[in-house]
Amino acid sequence: MYRTIMIAAIAVFILSLLTFAQPQRLTPQERVKALTERLNLTKDQASQIEQIYIQAQDQMKKMSTTDGKPDRSAMRKMMQDTQTQVVNVLDDKQKVEFQKMQDERRSGTQNKKPANKPDSKANTKADSLKSE
C-alpha cells in the first residue's frame, strides 16, 4: 500500500515538473483570439493576422530544426518582421493599443494590474495630499 502511494506521488511530481518545465507557446489561433478580444479585430483582420502568425510559426520551426541550435538574431528579425506585418493590418487606434500590449509584455506587467485601474497606493497618497 505504502509503495503504491509513493509511486503515485512520484508520478504526480514528475508530471507536474514536465507540465511546468517549458511554457507553452500560444497557437496562431489563440494569439488571434487574444488580439481580437483586446483590439476588436474585424474578421478580415483576424484572418490576415492568423495567416501571418501561421507563416511565422512555420519559419520558426524551420529555423530551429536547421542544425539543432537556432540563430537567435535571425529569429529576432523574423519576429520583428512578423510584428511589422501585423501592425500593417491594424488601423491607427488598434496600432496604439497593440504597441501598449508590446510594451506591457516587454516590461512583464501584463496580467499583473490592468492599465485602466488606478493603483490603490497612488490614490491613498493623492488622498493624503488633498487632506493636508
Explain this structure:
The protein has 132 residues and is mainly alpha-helical. It has helices spanning 2-21, 28-39, 43-65, 72-89, 92-107, 120-131. The chain has a domain at 25-108.
**Percent of residues in β-strands:** under 5%
- SSE string, helices as H and strands as E: HHHHHH
Form type = elongated
Count of DSSP E strands?
0
What is the average of the pLDDT values?
77
The biggest sheet amounts to: none
User: What distance lies between the first and last C-alpha atoms, to the nearest angstrom?
Assistant: 69 Å
Spans where pLDDT lies below 50 across 5 or more residues: 115-132
Count of DSSP-assigned helices: 6
Give the class from helix and strand content and strand pairing.
Answer: mainly alpha
The radius of gyration over CA amounts to 22 Å
Helix content: over 70%
What tags apply to this protein structure?
mainly alpha; 0% strand; 132 residues; 77% helix; single chain
